[in-house]
Amino acid sequence: MTTEPGDRASQFDVAIVGCGPVGALLANLLKQYGHKVAVLEREPDIFYAPRGMGFDDESTRIMQSAGILDRLKAEGHIYQADLELIDRSGKRLGGFDRRSVGEDLLSGLHGHRHMTLFHQPSLEATLREEFATGENAATAYFNHEVTGITDQGDRVELNCKDRATDEEHSLIAKYVVGCDGARSTVRKTMNVPRIDLKYTKKYLVVDAIVDDPVYFRTMIPQGGYILLDGKEAGVLFKGLHGHVRFDFLQHSETIGQELKTDEDYQKAARDLIRSRGFDPENFRVIRSVSYTFHAGMPSKWRVGRLMVAGDAAHLTPPWSGQGLNMGVRDAANLSFKLNLALRGKSSDRILDTYDEERRPQSLETIQAAVDMGIRMQNTSPLQIGLRNLAYALSRKSKFVNRLLFKNWIRKPSYKSGLLGLQHRLSGGPMFQPWVETAEGKRVRMDDLIGLNFALISTDSPTGPEVRQFVSELGGVVLKLDCDFFDPSETVCKWYDEHRINAVLLRPDRVIYDAGRDGQALCRSLLAELRK
Q1: Strand pairing partners for 505?
Q2: DSSP E strands: which ranges in 218-335?
Q3: Who contacts 266 (Cβ-Cβ below 8 Å, separation ≥6)?
Q4: What distance in Å separates the CA atoms of residue 511 and residue 315, rounded to the nearest whole number?
Q5: How far apart are CA 526 and CA 472, in angstroms?
Q6: Is the pTM of this model over 0.85?
Q7: Which of 153, 169, 222, 258 is deepest in the core (most CB within 10 A)?
Q8: Which of 434, 425, 445 lies closest to 498, judged by CA?
């Protein structure tokens, strides 16, 4: 329908430009907070081929919090996977699985396996169905191109065009979030400089479908494989629903020819599949493209009422598998802060902490991926020898492999932002244990919390600040051995190790602060939100 700026139907709390996984997840989270959301997407349909393929344990936890993880599992769109490191000949250099790492590390801080592979078209379809149904459904404008964005100080006006009819629309939003990819219209409107991390490499990206279920099940190895080689570096992942991804450095000596036509790309795809030891006749190539990976980001993620998230906010090479995962963390961080600002629980300066927290962490994550890519593509005989020696030791020593795995999965904590910073735990994630309810039901801790702040304590904190925490913020207060039980004593041991009685947890599962006095933690948070 055609809408005008004054039309009530065209006024929204948040307009999200771009409906990939990050935009669709953000719409779901904001919907659950009760906000009126518009989603504008240039394309009419979901992209046919997977692009992102793997969640880390934190992203899987966020999908749990968003309420879609069980559905993805039930419908067969995700599976837990292991990672192998191989050389050009296919020899195993190292790997991270239950036997060589241990379930305690492999299952992760967040209560999920460190690598969960998913089928992106199915993920996007699920997210779209979830935000478009039920109470407070988001309004979606598919096949609509945003042609203009104007921040008017107290609101943002967006102009867009229906690409099927050329009909023009206008709508108003209090805030706009650009989840519209590497060529983001929102980011261009923000007009901020770019931080360039000096990484530009061209890859051949091949997505193929194995139609024979027996061949797919028996001949394609489970999980992910990273090839470490100066000329053939790349990744291979077995996805879901017959999908296999080949993502390899487009080195002149291995690709071997200039790729111009569809026939060139199809031949290059078949050659790549064959070079990995498979018969290309068993693969139906649905996409074969050259893709140039860059590393960098805009120098600001918020300008006035405009913000960016996902690929609009950060570009990274594929080596650490953090491209989409960074975007998922963006959505979790930004959604609860937009909720605080929109509900008047904080001034909108709270949105500055989105940039303050997410941008430095993402910058460090991207730099680590760049460094990893350089090491994996190393051609120095000495460096290759040292690298192979480290992995040889990891094959013989579980201790060494655990050290390598810890370095692989390491993510920096937040150093400043919406944090109490009185305890060393502040800024890092709270682990997620299995606990028991008062009724004896075994559940994950987050399922007792929902999308809320939570005070988790060994005693019964009382006082006006605790009551305000509950009444004003909708905070959840959980007392150990009263509101939940800890049969394995993992929570008790963790509290004892850090000499604390209470943790104040943010909705994105980051620890605001920890200490002995739960009331003091609530007082600190409330004061921070009033600034």
Answers
A1: 454, 511
A2: 224-227, 234-238, 243-249, 284-298, 302-303, 306-308
A3: 285, 288
A4: 27
A5: 9
A6: yes
A7: 169
A8: 425
Calculate the alpha carbon distances from 166 to 15, 43, 139, 308 in Å. Answer: 21, 14, 19, 27
Q: What sign results for the dihedral spanned by CA atoms 285, 127, 216, 377?
A: positive
| 234-262 tens-digit pLDDT | 889 999 999 999 988 776 555 656 788 89
Q: For the chain, how big is the Rg over CA atoms in Å?
A: 24
- Asked if 477 and 402 count as a contact pair (C-beta separation under 8 A), the reply is no
Measure the N-to-C terminal CA separation of the chain; round to a whole number of Å. 41
CB 163 within 8 A of CB 294: no
Q: How many residues does the chain have?
A: 531
Nearest to 315 by CA among 182, 126, 459: 182
Q: What is 347-378 written as a DSSP string? A: -GGGGHHHHHHHHHHHHHHHHHHHHHHHHHT-
Cβ-Cβ contacts under 8 Å for 326 (sequence gap 6 or more):
310, 313, 314, 316, 358, 362, 365
Under a CB-based contact definition with an 8 Å cutoff, are residues 201 and 33 in contact? no
pLDDT single digits (tens) 265-302: 999 999 999 988 899 999 999 999 988 888 999 999 99
Counting Cα atoms < 13 Å in the Cβ hemisphere of 106 gives: 16
What's the one-letter identity of residue 300?
K
C-alpha distance from residue 267 to each of 204, 238, 244, 249, 261 (Å):
12, 21, 17, 16, 10
Contacts by 368-374, CB closer than 8 A, 24 or more apart: 368/320, 368/410, 369/295, 369/316, 369/317, 369/318, 369/319, 369/320, 369/322, 370/197, 370/198, 370/199, 370/295, 370/316, 370/317, 370/319, 372/319, 372/320, 373/199, 373/201, 373/233, 373/317, 373/319
Which residue, 448, 516, 460, 510, is CA-closest to 484? 448
Name residue 434's beta-bridge partners.
444
